[in-house]
Specification:
Length: 188
């Protein structure tokens, strides 16, 4: 369990924002470890991968435990735009924030590519990979909804990671947390 100061609304308050200031939400996928806090964004414009909501409501039996009804209820209060599989969406038309279609872990898995002020690129991989080695070896995971799609999405991450001045952050990789969030502070 995270300490109270790590709660989403508290982290937004720290630099002077509130959840009401958030106008757009991108969800990597609807597994419970990625959906906490959705209740704060009712009415926001959301971006979700094609088929993700449908799958979350009727998942395969072996992954049913990864979805929480309370989070799906909160998701229902967001104004979602579905990002079609195979389509990357440039949110502002300037390359600063690009939603990446990366199906396989779940049908609608998404990543996010951010162009940072220093000109570097940060790619947030969601759960397409759980450790950097998944990208290197293009190895999927047993809980993937579609192994072939998962491997194609890992190949996409591998190509992105090979670009100059680009960092791919793997959400569950403890080495990435230590390297990119040293002492709880963003260092990218």
């Amino acid at each position: 369990m995270f300490p109270a100061e790590r709660a989403l609304d508290r982290q937004l308050e720290s630099p002077g924002f509130s959840t009401a200031d958030v106008k757009r939400v991108v969800i990597s996928h609807l597994h419970f470890d990625h959906t906490g806090g959705l209740e704060h964004f009712a009415g926001a414009q959301g971006y979700i991968g094609s088929g993700e909501l449908r799958y979350a409501r009727t998942p395969d039996n072996h992954v049913r435990v990864f979805f929480r009804q309370e989070d799906l209820d909160a998701a229902d209060r967001i104004d979602w735009m579905e990002v079609p599989a195979g389509y990357d969406h440039d949110m502002f038309g300037d390359g600063s924030v690009v939603v990446l279609s990366m199906p396989g872990h779940t049908p609608g898995s998404l990543g996010l590519q951010l162009r940072l002020p220093d000109g570097s690129t940060l790619v947030l991989s969601g759960d397409v990979a759980h450790i950097q080695d998944n990208i290197s070896c293009c190895d999927g995971m047993p809980a993937d909804s579609d192994t072939a799609d998962a491997i194609e999405s890992l190949k996409k991450l591998k190509l992105l990671r090979s670009q100059p001045n680009t960092t791919v952050c793997v959400n569950h990789d403890i080495d990435d947390w230590n390297r990119l969030r040293a002492n709880g502070r963003q260092v990218v």
